What does this fold into?
Amino acid sequence: MTAPTIRTDWTREEIAALFDLPFMDLMYEAQTVHRAYHPRNEVQLSTLLSIKTGGCPEDCGYCSQSVEADSGVKATKLMDVRQVLQAAAQAKDNGSGRFCMGAAWRNPKERDMPALVEMIQGVREMGMETCMTLGMLDAGQAKTLADAGLDYYNHNIDTAPENYANVITTRTFEDRIETLENVRAAGINVCCGGIVGLGETREDRIGFIHALGCMPHPESVPINALVPVKGTVLGDMLADTPLAKIDEIEFVRTVAVARIVMPASMVRLSAGRESMSEACQALCFMAGANSIFTGDKLLTAPNAGDDKDAAMLAKLGIRAMQAAPHGHLEEAAE
Ligand code: SAM
Ligand code: DTB
Ligand code: SF4
It folds into this structure.
C-alpha cells in the first residue's frame, strides 16, 4: 500500500463512516494503514511516575487527584529530583524507553521550574526519552522545558469539544488548545488524546477523533479507557449502570479510527488495560495501537505490571520498540 497522505481536513461524516464500517473491514484498513507507517509487531514502552500527587484544583470528573474527589488519594509535595531519577533508572532496567512524569497541577509555578529542568536533564542523561504532563503551560515555561531537553509534553483534549463542559468546568477546551500551541511552538513533541467510557455518545467519540485529526497531528495519541474511581463524579455516576464499562468492541473501533485518521502518530493504549482481557488488547494492537504504559502503577491507578506485560507481548510476538535518539517520530519509524 502506498502510504496514505496525512490529512487535517477530515469531516465528521468521514469519521462517522469509519466508525460505521463492518468491524473486520475497519480492522483490516487500520492494520494496513499501520503497516504503511510503522514497524509491524513493535510496541513502544513508556513508564509513568506521579511526581506530585493529589490536591489538584481542577475538577476533571474522572480524576482521583482532584480536590473535588473523595477518592482517598493523599496529596503530596513535588518529589525530590534524586527520588525521581531513581525511579527512572528502575524503569530503564525494566526495558522502558520513555519516562513520563505527571503532576496534579492546574499549571506549574515558577518556583517549580528549576527542579523540573533537573529531572528532564537527569532522565535524558540515562538515555531515556522524557515526557511531562503538568497542566497548562505558558510560552515561556514551554521554552524552558524544551531547552532542558524535554522530548514530549502530554496534554489531553480528553473528549469532544461539545462534551468538554460535561466533564470539566474549571477550564475550557480552548485553554487546552492554547497550551498545545505553546508546546508545539517550543519544538516539543505533542502527546494528546483522551478518554473513552466517560458516558459519552458515539457522536462524542466522533467529535473527539475529529478534533485530534484536524489539528497538526500529535506525535503521540493516548487513548485511555476510563478507570472508574469511587469518589469521583464519573466513577460514582456510572457505577452500577450499563455504562460502567465501555463496550470493548466500541473501544477497539475508537483505536482503529484514531489509527486511520492519524496514520503517522503513535497510538497509545493507555489507562484501563488492567481490566482488559489480553484478547481485547491484542485487538487494539491489530487496530494500530503501538505504545503502552508499563509498570505496575499509572499515576494513582494500578497497571498491568512488567511481568504480566512481558508474558502478553511474548505470547503475541510483539517486540519493544527501541527509543529514538532524540524522541523524533521519523527516526523511531525507520
Ligand atoms: N494534571 C495534568 C493534566 O490533566 O493535564 C496531568 C495529569 S492527568 C492525570 C493526565 C490524563 O490522565 C488526563 O488528561 C486523562 O486523560 C487521564 N486520566 C486521568 N484520570 C483517569 C482515569 N480515572 N481513567 C482514565 N484516564 C484518566
Ligand atoms: C494519559 O493520557 N494517560 C496517562 C498519562 N496520559 C499521564 C495517565 C493515566 C492516568 C490514569 C489514572 C490514574 O493513574 O490516576
Ligand atoms: Fe488535575 Fe490533571 Fe486530574 Fe484534572 S486530570 S484533576 S488537571 S491531575
